[in-house]
Amino acid sequence: MDTILFWGIIAILCAILQSLGIWKYGLAGGFLITMTLLAIHYDFGTDYWAYYDWYEESLSMPFPRSISEFLTISHDPGWDMINLFFGKVFGTNGFFILVATLSIIESLCYYTFIKKFVPNNWYWFAMAIYILNNHFFILTFSMMRQSFVMAILLICFTWIQQRKIILPLFVILLASTIHNSVLLCCPVVFIVLFSFNNQKFWGILLLSLWLLLLTASAILEPILSSFANLTEMFAHYVDTYSKSSNMSYGIGYLLRLIPFIFLVIGLFTNQFAKEDVPMLVIWSLTIILTPFGIIIPLFERLLFYFELAIFAVFPKIIKTCHSIYVKILLTISVLILSIYTLYIGFYNPKSVYYDTFLDFHTIFEII
């Protein structure tokens, strides 16, 4: 883990150089470092060997004669098809090529999104969040499927920002064949049907929803538990994620509330551009739906999707703050939150991730 953190800091320094105007390719250089680490890792992360075994099984799977036949034998047909393709083309070593290919695609998605939505002087912050927030870069070593879907979702967010419906909805449905938890993001697409001229209305709505769900947790628990187990698909994820969930109303939640409060204030005072409101609402769901994540671990993973918007949202929240001291406080609070979650997730011996993230290995050890 120390190896990952060391090179992660180097990547952040590269982004700082671009933010300072010293090296115009600093952000690209930083992502080249992180992409390389992702592409060459071996026996690193909790699910590495599970995905390797999944790939090995695909080698013995007969190529389906029809889509209907494939759907009957596959739980996650999109992921199985990817495995089947790399298996048939590259054979046993194709798994390592698959890992490298996904690493390149995911890194390009993050890089493109940050270049599009983050101002140059905030590249360093975006890279720091990408490295230190344990829901992005670090967990990509473990949750291969969801990380890939999250990267695809970044593209969908771009389309949602452009008020498109059909394209992001289609891609999300397609991505659900890889990790079907992303289906719960489908309703977000229809946010483009609403008007964002009255920002105060959205501020009141977000604040009201947050207070409502926060105070109604006890009532929601049996309802959500029943919903999550309605289908075999969701019940499978509930059982899997409950083993690694550590979400609670603690210091991490309090730190997350700080930018949310400033976001709501900004909406109340009409300080955001109209086209920025959809992304602000999407990120707000990270806070609003936290009670769901505490009750059902599946929803904790769902929050990862909405948290992706932090890259685009945070610089806009900062612009609404007129005091330099408030800006510094807000920035530090988010960075402290990321460092705190990184520590409890990967440096705490009691964490489920601790042992498998202890020593970094590369494919060069077996070549």
Give me some keywords for this one:
367 residues; 0% strand; globular; mainly alpha
Structural class determined from secondary elements: mainly alpha
Q: Judging from the principal axes of the Cα atoms, what is the shape?
A: globular
Q: Kindly state the mean pLDDT as a whole number?
A: 84
Low-confidence stretches: 237-245
Helix content: 55-70%
With helices defined by DSSP (H or I, 4 residues minimum), what is the helix count?
Answer: 20
End-to-end Cα distance: 22 Å
| Number of strand segments | 0
- Radius of gyration (Å): 21 Å
- Biggest beta-sheet profile: none
Hey, roughly how much beta strand do the residues contain?
under 5%
The ordered H/E elements are HHHHHHHHHHHHHHHHHHHH
Q: Give the oligomer, counting copies of the same chain as homo and different chains as hetero.
A: single chain
